[in-house]
Amino acid sequence: MAKQRKVVLAYSGGLDTSIILRWLQVEKNCEVVTFTADLGQGGELEPARKKAELMGIKQIFIEDLREEFVRDFVFPMFRANALYEGVYLLGTSIARPLIAKRLVEIAAETGADTISHGATGKGNDQVRFELTAYALKPDIKVIAPWREWDLSSRTKLIEYAEQHQIPIPTDKRGESPYSMDANLLHISYEGKALEDPWVEADEDMFRLTVSPEKAPDKAEYVEIEFASGDPIAVNGQKLSPAALLTKLNELGGRNGVGRLDLVENRYVGMKSRGVYETPGGTVLHVAHRAMESITLDREAMHLKDELMPRYAKLVYTGYWFAPEREMLQVAIDKTQERVNGVVRLKLYKGNCSVVGRKSPNSLYRMDYVTFEEDSVYNQYDAEGFIKLNALRLRLGTMARQKK
Description:
By secondary structure, the chain is α/β, with parallel strands linked by helices. The chain has helices at residues 15-26, 46-54, 66-79, 96-110, 125-136, 154-163, 241-254, 279-295, 298-316, 323-335, 366-369, 381-401, and strands spanning 5-10, 30-38, 60-64, 114-116, 141-143, 179-182, 187-190, 220-227, 230-234, 237-238, 259-265, 271-277, 341-348, 351-358. Helix 5 links the parallel strand 4 (114-116) and strand 5. Helix 9 packs antiparallel against helix 10. The mean pLDDT is 95.
């Protein structure tokens, strides 16, 4: 009999990863180590431990990674103002490199040579998990059951679970209306009832946000303080990264802020429809751009905006630990050294509006921009500026008129 392989499984405790756990034991003759990450998805994680124990697992890792997730992954990404395809705040994408990093680290700690995950062969997550793993440990081995097994339907999964004494929640025996992924930054909903991009999502689906129609009739104001591009306080209260994002989720959620219905281009080639709730992230994104508006030099800001789509694509496609993302991060972080101050926002029925901003490093000068009389700006200088910039345009027109 072949030597038993030791594998670290990214384990949620749900039906699919429980089936994967048993499949690894039975079909692959693996000794399984489970890893469950608390990224702020909500719910109790201890049931995952109990279920793993019932399935004979001896080494069980359940870790609270919320602070590391926000501090070392979410905040650096938000310094870049990253939006995939102009709108998506990358809530699922940014969680995967942290999970994969810990899978590799736990493999080293436990003497495993293999990791496994529950991502399907149609999605982006398989790419994100595995690119991260190979970047951090080039000789790591990967088992991706969805690319190997023949359990290609819900019926076959249920039959396999029954055959191997895996408890099946009552609500899992039928088709769930969508798949969901949650963490402290967002909740995503995909598939099944959402596959037709013409059909509006059911209001009962949303968990983090009230509908804008049901949000309070009175606007709520919030002030966010930044230091070197990162938020450090809400309404004057200093908070840890995870606590701060939790607070912004509460504020944005109760005012109906942060919903997105998107058809996006997956890395594997197809288009997919996703519905997202990112209340705190939406508030933070608007606030950060407002803080930059008075603290960043014009050309630095414009160059940063040109780099953003490339940065966002790298996060989306799984290249967090690639040299090009790290290179861009150094450049972005350099721009953030003087992004300090406070932004005031108004939240009202799904809208998040900037209504004030101030900074000790502000480049905004009222004595220069005033419409009243001033003594610092010579308006006559603009004539030469315009003529020099118009010179190439005038020469081009003159040349064409000679023909």
